Amino acid sequence: MIKFSEIKNSFLISLWFMFLTFPIMVIRVNTIENTIEWRWNNMIFMGVGSFFLSFLWRYLIERKEAGKKKDEIGETTEIPLTQRILEDRRFYVPGLIVLSVLIVVFPFVFSSYQVNVMTTALIYVMLGLGLNIVVGLAGLLDLGYVAFYAVGAYSYALLNYHYGLGFWAVLPIGAVLGALAGILLGFPVLRLRGDYLAIVTLGFGEIIRLILENYNEFSFGPSGIANIPRPGFFGVEMSLNTAIIYVYFVLIALTLFTIFVVNRLQDSRIGRAWIALREDEIACQAMGIDKTKTKLTAFALGATWAGMGGVLFAAKTTFINPASFTFMESAMILSMVVLGGMGSVAGVIIGALILILLPEYLRGVGEYRMLFFGAALVLMMVFRPQGLISRVRRTYKFEGCKDARMQELRVKGE
Amino acid sequence: METILNVKELTMDFGGLRALDHLDMDVNQGEIVALIGPNGAGKTTFFNCITGIYAPTKGDILLMSPDGKCQRINGLKPNHVTEKGMARTFQNIHLFPNMTVLENVMIGRHCRTVSGIAGAIFRTGKTLEEEKQVAERSYTLLEKVGLESFVNALAKNLPYGAQRRLEIARAMATEPFLLLLDEPAAGMNPLETNELDELIVDIRDKEHISILLIEHDMKLVMSLSDRIFVMDYGKKIAQGTPDEIRNNPAVIKAYLGEDIDA
What is the CATH topology of the domain spanning A110-383? Predict the structure, then answer.
């Protein structure tokens, strides 16, 4: 039953919201006729809306608290729904088939605008997965990730401009340069962690951007570099439309490659060392893990994907300038990782798709787009701070173990 | 008996504070040695110095590995000390809370395995074989400490006593010949303490790992140790067998204070 106090609370909330939104939602000054319009019906909408939403909000909070309590007692033996779907063959085999058909058919069904949007989203999936190594697995908060993205993009643009190198030649070079930049950043920050690390990486990102903006002889400054060729296909001439579809498929292939590598890395010896480093630095070292080496590999491998993403970005847009590599980009990529679920590959993919596609498709609601987007992020962090899909550790099965457990059960049963 | 750890004149200064003052100590092969002393005597600082977490101000720490090599390990990084064959547990538990119990132990195998990034990506035969061995050995260790039913549980969800035993298993995974235990029985109930007593003796007798432990539980210390070192204010005030220590006036003074009448 709904209690009287709850109704009172909701009523107060709706009053407060009506008051807050009064200046922007109700008053409108008509500057041509010098009159003021009073839109009182907007105020009623606000009041009724916030009255009911506050109920929903309270219900969701309650549910979350209940879940947390259960967690503390240790009652949550059930596996989360997403995990069950991901692991059950009956679901994920048909799911994968449908998904791959969709991926293949997509560019031929939808307009090249849609394909372009999806290509951008895929670049961010790659970046998100790369940053996931640094932030999600190794726990090193990197706010300057976009610097490596810029390194990749400019290495393609400049190598092409000066030496005429093609996309496929520069792709591995971009990856290596990205990794080297990662190590370059890694060395000075080896001793730092947490907030201090975040500040230094933030500075690093800005330094790279400012160099690109001001070192005109090297990077052509704010005017950027134009006429960067799209990826070639054995010298075949392509129309613009075909080229867009081709870039899309190149990205699909590279994204699959990224998923494959990241997936294998996270359950390997190196991946475990990264996670141990995140969990407890002192214990990690005391157990014989070389902190320096582990941190540097995390930075280098994370930056590799940013380097490749940068090359792809330059090839896709055919024009780059420093304005594409602002701190906002780093923040976006970091949000993808956090929103999707730190350390979870599926989570980061979904996070990246949501964060890129949502603002794009919200263009329909015009100027409210960023408002909706912000609200979605805030709600997400309130109700699922662990991200959309939380990471589940790999389980191991042992013959002996199963038996031991069975015996124990049998003893208890008798 | 062969000495495997030999500490000479170890001194550690924190600014003006002398936490360890010319401390001498040694551990022989196959011994269980205890280090006791009132709170703040410098026992954990001593552990931190010999495991490389702190670099000592003065003195020598010599480690004799079973193959007969004698090395000075002052100022080595903690991971190198572990590689040399001396592993430790922590006074306030330092597990990897969000990793599974098995993975915690597998981390201990890190310094005894070699596979790298390329191996992980291509899953070469060598890597797969190594991974299998790591998992199996870690599982065997979990069986030894009695945690095999928790293999896939997250470490943070284990009961307190089990977390302590997991720390021991993880340290043993690094293949040490000397194991340092920092208050292994802290916070355990009498039953758990008894089990721990058996476990420690087992590690010494079956695994042939010598043990140096810090402990406040006198019953455990007296029943386990072959020799005891007593510290107070950074200095060694006594050493000897449990019986000698029990009747040593300096030790009684350190623990109970001086008799005013005397």
Answer: ABC transporter involved in vitamin B12 uptake, BtuC (1.10.3470)
